[in-house]
Amino acid sequence: MSIDEKTAARVAKLARIKVEDDQLPALAQEFSNILGFIEQLNEVDVEGIEPMTSVTPQKLYRRVDEVTDGDQQEKVLKNAPDAREGFFAVPKVVE
Amino acid sequence: MSDLTKMTLADARDALRKRETTSVELTETHLKAIEGAGALNAFVHHTPEIALEQAKAADARIAAGDAPDMCGLPIGIKDLFCTKGVPSQAASAILNEFKPEYESTVSQNLFDAGGVMLGKLNMDEFAMGSSNETSVYGNVVNPWRRNGDDAALTPGGSSGGSASAVAADLCLAATGTDTGGSIRQPAAFTGITGIKPTYGRCSRWGTIAFASSLDQAGPMTKDVRDAAIMLKAMCSFDAKDSTSANLPVPNFEAMLTGNIKGKTIGIPEEYSMDGMSQEIRDLWADGTEMLKAAGAEIRHISLPHTKYALPAYYVIAPAEASSNLARYDGVRYGHRATLDAGDGITEMYEKTRAEGFGPEVQRRVMIGTYVLSAGFYDAYYNRARRVRALIKKDFDDVFATGVDAILTPATPSAAFGLGEMKDADPVQMYLNDVFTVTVNLAGLPGVAVPAGVDAQGLPLALQLIGKPWEEGDLLNTAYALEQAAGFVAKPNKWW
Predict the structure, then answer these.
(1) What is the C-alpha separation between B356 and B352, in angstroms, rounded?
(2) Domain limits for position B221
(3) FRET partner for B83 with CA separation of 20 to 30 A, picked from A34, B399, B401, B471?
(4) Is residue B189 in a domain?
(5) What is the rounded distance in angstroms from the CA atom of residue B256 to the CA atom of residue B122?
């Protein structure tokens, strides 16, 4: 499958990665090559095969629904690029 | 006392227990070796204060008669593991300045067992790479060189720093992680032993995630016995990782008898790939003969979906990565781009991620985004997961016929030159993992054992693949292979 520049731009947008316009042709070409490689999977007969959800058969274990952790505001904010008054700060989201 | 850096974990453990040396002495000797090995670029964050403090505590424990196997032994920790108060950035610019407020379960287990952390080890960015050339810290250099040639070689990846450091005797052992071959391939390129245990053996908690259904931690060591010792210390049930196995962890070292009489070893025909070098073919045939001579029955087997493992991996791993790496948004930790006037939150995300992620990580995140996007989810992601189920079934079927372990080459070649693959298509680089990636997709344990050198003097390895949760039996077969192969070569010190 060949990926055009428009698709490459859309994927970059969905992934929230800024890609300059002049980089798009090379990116589209790389995607095309990788997807071309992946397309070998179409040769496999997967009729009746369930997609794997867990490599070892297991049930997620359950625990009592109770608070086991918390009160760590300072630690949670410690690595934030911009933390103010106990909150993560971000650029203005609404006008 | 002979050179302390040349010891294995087992040697050093025994010497400590006999009071022939101290952990402080072992640690200081290794810290000095690290200082002199800047040219390898293996250690990227040095933690001598922590190491000496842990060494003193270990010596006190040994004096008090409480010495678990890892007690007092200096090791390196891959940068992918979160270590409290110490930079842990997965070799990525996006985690610049990140110092976790918590300890990963695996590193905590090692510290609880008395392990001493010398520092953090270089790797490919977010463990995405097979040559350790995608790191924000720069390339790691393999201590091995081709005969009569000074060209810098790759130690493999993604655990390249771990491999280089252990091979160069900068630490007694190191932690690695393996998503598609990231322990076994670098172990093979540097003449050391590396095991990826069964998925679920080691807790993933606090290990920076790449592809959660494939990621497993494991030890990278100088020999098989050391792998058994360190693996036991790393494994545990952990309620903080929902895929962690609630199973007892056996004493793997006690299972190393070297006796494999009556075991059945499978040789999969599909691993004989076009273009594979004669040296690799010969190594594989020699390894087969060695196991046969040790009393194993050799059986030719078929794993028919092998060919589709790499393409399935390059759907599943990027898909999971695109989801896992969504957390790097410039809000909670790590790098945030400098914004222009008028930039809003979307620009902040996009600029932060463009600046923070290197090209290979960006490529995989975007491929993952694409295969998960509306209209393509079934065609790519679900199809890959169906193929994954078939790959696992191939192994299940073979093990059901009584095969105990499977012998394959570990890599298609010996270590290649740094920069040699620079202009190659990314898919060419992905082929490095062709023999290892099946094991991650099937969740099985796999171990790389050095088994010979090529014509240029570089180490070559074989891989043994075992049944789920049978790491002890697998390591015993690896031990028999190690004894028969008698690999003792070491790189000449040039750094």
Answers:
(1) 6
(2) 4-262
(3) B471
(4) yes
(5) 31
The reply to whether A14 falls in a domain is yes
Total number of domains in chain B: 1
Given a cut of 70, the residues of chain B with pLDDT beneath it are 1-2
Domain extent for A34: 5-41
Q: The pTM is what?
A: 0.97
Q: Does A14 sit within 8 Å of B387, measured CB to CB?
A: no
The answer to the question of residue A17 being in a domain is: yes
The answer to whether residue A62 is domain-embedded is no
Taking the C-alpha atoms of residue B245 and residue B252, their distance in angstroms, rounded to an integer, is: 17
Per-residue model confidence as pLDDT tens digits over B117-126 = 999 999 999 9
Chain A to chain B, count of Cβ pairs less than 8 Å apart? Answer: 163
Do the chains contact at B198 and A56, CB–CB below 8 Å?
Answer: yes
Domain count, chain A: 1
CA distance B410 to chain A (A): 22
Q: Is residue A27 part of a domain?
A: yes
Does B373 reside within a domain? Answer: no
Euclidean distance between CA atoms B478 and B447, whole angstroms? 7
Query: Distance between CA atoms of B389 and A56, rounded to whole angstroms?
Result: 11
Residue A34 to residue B426, Cβ atoms within 8 A? yes
B338 touches A: beta carbon within 8 Å: no
CA atoms within a 13 Å half-sphere pointing along the CA-CB vector of A25: 1
Q: What is the pLDDT of residue B424?
A: 84
Of B314, B370, B384, the CB nearest to A37: B314
Complex prediction ipTM: 0.96
User: Between chains, do A50 and B386 touch, taking CB under 8 Å as contact?
Assistant: yes
Rounded to whole angstroms, how far apart are CA atoms B292 and B285? 11
Q: Which residues of B touch A49 (CB under 8 A)?
A: 386, 389-390
In a domain, B157, yes or no: yes
**Contact check, Cβ <8 Å, B390/A49:** yes
Identify the CATH number of the domain in which residue B232 sits.
3.90.1300.10
